[in-house]
Amino acid sequence: PLVKDGVYFMYQALHGPSKKILVEGANAALLDIDFGTYPFVTSSNCTVGGVCTGLGIPPHYIGKVYGVVKSYTTRVGVGTFPTEQNNEIGETLQTRGREFGVTTGRKRRCGWLDLVLVKYAHMINGFSALAVTKLDILDTFEEIRVGVEYHLDGKKIPYFPANQELLNKVTVKYKDLPGWRCSTEAARTFDDLPAEAQAYIRFIEGYLGVPVKWIGVGKSRKSIIKLF
Length: 228
What we know:
The chain has 228 residues and is of the alpha/beta class. It has helices at 6-15, 50-55, 88-96, 115-125, 164-167, 195-208; strands spanning 66-70, 73-75, 109-111, 113-114, 129-133, 143-152, 155-157, 171-178, 212-216, 224-226. The chain has two domains: 1-63, Adenylosuccinate Synthetase, Chain A, domain 1; 64-226, Adenylosuccinate Synthetase, subunit A, domain 3 (Adenylosuccinate Synthetase, Chain A, domain 3), CATH 3.90.170.
């Protein structure tokens, strides 16, 4: 009873009584077989196009597209990671965030939020809004850095390189923002957040031109701030 013809099942759902259909990407955008950091990718489309290629849903049925991004950047296994922190900062993010691969149990590599990468994901997916998760993991930092530009051979490049050889050579320009040095876990409205945490979220919105709709501040289902 749990096995059905997927295309016909989705067709019925789309043409029957009006309902909301939520489709979740199987992996992160940069693991997409076509647009990810090849060859360090999965075997399918994790970006919004996977709605069509994976489920047989016609493109014109796609409505809102929500991007989910941590307040810092992580990666499991090998592959280029420009903002990776192989130091105490990375260890703190890994430990506080309990960053382990779900399937393999391997420690995730951790680094500062890479907005060049997130902007690339937005170019492909066209986010309607963002959910920024695990903001509370940054609670202990006095200063928080955000990757805002890639430079190659001393010159800024205005895009995320698809070529791994080039990506391995980029250097990152950071924007330094003040930390808030207090717990955000009890916050349930945007105004409950420290001014510095609010500024961090607003900086992300301003850089990407995408509104943040949800903010995660803990492990509980209730630990979510909804902005609109």
